[in-house]
Each structure stands twice: as C-alpha cells, then as structure tokens.
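agent> fetching stored inputs for the stearoyl-coenzyme A docking request
agent> found them:
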Amino acid sequence: MAPNITSTPTGVLFEGETLPEPQLIEESKEKPKYVRSIVWRNVVIFSFLHLGALYGAYLAFTSAKLATVFFAILLYQLTGLGITAGAHRLWAHRSYKAKWPLQVLLVILNTIAFQDAAIDWARDHRVHHKYSETDADPHNATRGFFFSHVGWLLCRKHPEVKEKGKGIDLSDLESDPILAFQKKYYFILMPLLCFILPTVIPVLCWNETWTNAYFIPTVFRYIFTLNMTWLVNSAAHLFGNKPYDRFINPSENKGVAMFALGEGWHNYHHVFPWDYKTAELGNYKLNFTTAFIDFFAKIGWAYDLKSVSVDMVRKRVERTGDGSHELWGWGDKD
Ligand code: ST9
Ligand code: ZN
Ligand code: ZN
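agent> prediction call returned; pasting tokens
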C-alpha cells in the first residue's frame, strides 16, 4: 500500500502526469479570487495510508510480536528527530550548527520520515514563519483545523505561497552537499528507507510476518508520525496559552509538545524562532529534541547553539504576553 511514486519534486506525481493549475478568477481589477484545486490523487493515497495505519494499530494489539511494536515506537521517535532536530531546528532555522556525522545521521532519519526533501520542507517552513496566517502561509491556520492539518497537502498551493516564497533565501540549503544529495536521489532513498527497510528488518531479524512488518512499523509508524507533525500546524496554531505574544495564533500546547518531541511550545517558537530549544523551558520539559541536541553538543557534534536571554524573554512577556506566564504567578507550574 506504499504510494507508487516515481519522480517529482513534491512526492506523489506519477511520471508524465500534470496537475491542473489553481485558478485566479478576476472578481474585480484589484482582487483576483483564488479557487481551490483539489489533488484527488493525494486524497486517495492519504486515505488508503490512513486506513492501512488503522489496520496496523489493530494488528499491534492482536497479533504482533512485542519487538515489532517497540521497533515502531523507536522509529517514530528517531524519525521524529530527523524532522525536529534536522529539518526544523537545524536546516529551516539554523538555530545550531552540526558537524557532518550528525548531519548525515539527521538526513538519514529525515529520509525515513518521508516529509519530502529537507530543502523543500525548510522552504515551506521559512515561508510559514515569514507570512504566518496569510495566504502565503502554506498551511495557513486561518483556513481551519483540517486545512492546516492535512488539507494543504491535498490541494494546489495558493499562488501567494509560490509568489512570496520566491523571495526566501535558500542559498545556505542549496549549497549544502548533503541536502543536495538527499534531494537528487530522494525517490530512490525515500522508498528504500521509509517503506522497504522498516518492513524487511522485523521479518529478517525476529521472524515477524510480512503483514505485521508492513502495517505496523511502516504504514502505522509513518502515518502516526505525520499526524503528530501536522498537529503543530493545526492544534498548536489554535489551542493553548499565549504567554509571550497574545496577538498571534501560535500557542503553547502541552499535548502537542509531548507527541511532537518538544515542538508544541509554539507561541514561544514563533516569537523567538532562532532558539534551538523552540521553548523557554530549560529542563527538557516535554522536549526530547533539546535533550538530543544537548547530548550531541556535549560530544562536540553540535555547536553554536542559539538561545534567548532571560531578560529578553521577560521584557517580551511583560509587553505582549496574555498573562499566563508564571511571571504573573498563576501560570503553568508543571
Ligand atoms: C508532509 C510535510 O507531511 C509536513 C510538514 C509539516 C511542517 C510542520 C512545521 C511545524 C514545526 C515543526 C514541527 C515538527 C514536529 C515533528 C514531530 C515528529 C514526531 N516557495 O509543492 P508544489 C513552487 S510531506 C517558493 O508541487 P503544487 C516551486 O517552483 C508528506 N516556491 O506545489 C515548486 O517547484 P520546485 C509526504 C514554491 O503544485 C512549484 O511551486 N509528501 C513553494 O501547488 C511546485 O511545488 C507528500 O505527500 C514555496 N514555499 O502542489 C507530498 N512551494 O519544488 C504532498 C512551491 O521544483 N505535496 N513552490 O521548486 C504535494 O503533492 C504538493 O506539494 C501539493 C501542492 C499538491 C500539496
Ligand atoms: Zn507555526
Ligand atoms: Zn519553525
């Protein structure tokens, strides 16, 4: 049930196939109206993958070996780090620097996660931060929970995303040989690492059935990790406190922080996007990714970790916070 992908920049076009352009209908001379163009092929593939994931969850409780379930959980955490410590904190935000062995490790984990080549992921994410909650934001949360969660992957991008995105500087990513290699060979590496290897390992190593190996650590793990990632765009843009800036939608969301390895402290992250912790909290509170980066900093593979001074945070909390920060004495105490 893996998507039968051949070779396109974004992941799910069959060779030779083209997609209809979204239309701009002239309502008046000043304001053309955007008409959404649904990509039905993506709707079908994601529907099948989600059904497969449900079946995988059923098998995990009924017939799988314990090792297979542990393997799926381990892959979720490791591939999640390929997104959080790799695509997000290292490549999209450059919030720390990594020596090449860590970059290689992260690009492998990132490819197993199959969220498209890191260069493309980081391009969309830089546009998201710069034009948050506007038509130029690829997963504009003002279009609702469903659109910002998955709907944006089921239709052509708003023309503003591409227009404004052209102005984003990607030279650091494009000149990175490791990222260029990943992008060039993505449609060989990704199926191998995301779908084939996680299926073959349980069968060869602990004699799991092909069905369990395919539906649990492969399809279920992939779809679960995707949904945990998408929650940052949907739930963490809609629900939670705003201790740092009450005038923006991104919020502090504990549930998302827990499942997205520390990426749910989204009010802080949109205010201080260069902080490698993506959160103010220093004690690894629901922030496995920070612990991971700190570990690699200890052994010298991560360095130049960027952060924000306590004074700068305090001033911002006092100026624009919603009053839920513990500076006011009644905030989050966990
Ligand atoms: C997936 C990504 O799921 C999830 C990302 C989530 C981000 C979350 C961020 C939150 C913070 C971090 C938290 C991490 C938490 C992790 C927790 C883990 C436990 N700028 O895209 P195309 C131009 S992927 C400038 O095809 P369409 C450009 O020329 C899932 N230009 O647009 C481009 O050509 P090229 C697997 C841009 O045709 C051309 O347009 N992947 C920009 O409208 C065409 O681009 C899939 O399922 C821009 N931003 O199609 C694939 N964007 O690339 C799904 C585009 O050659 N995607 N251009 O330069 C698709 O099928 C299509 O992209 C589409 C839009 C149908 C959605
Ligand atoms: Zn955001
Ligand atoms: Zn970010």
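agent> quick read of the result: The first helix runs from residue 40 to 62.
agent> awaiting further instructions
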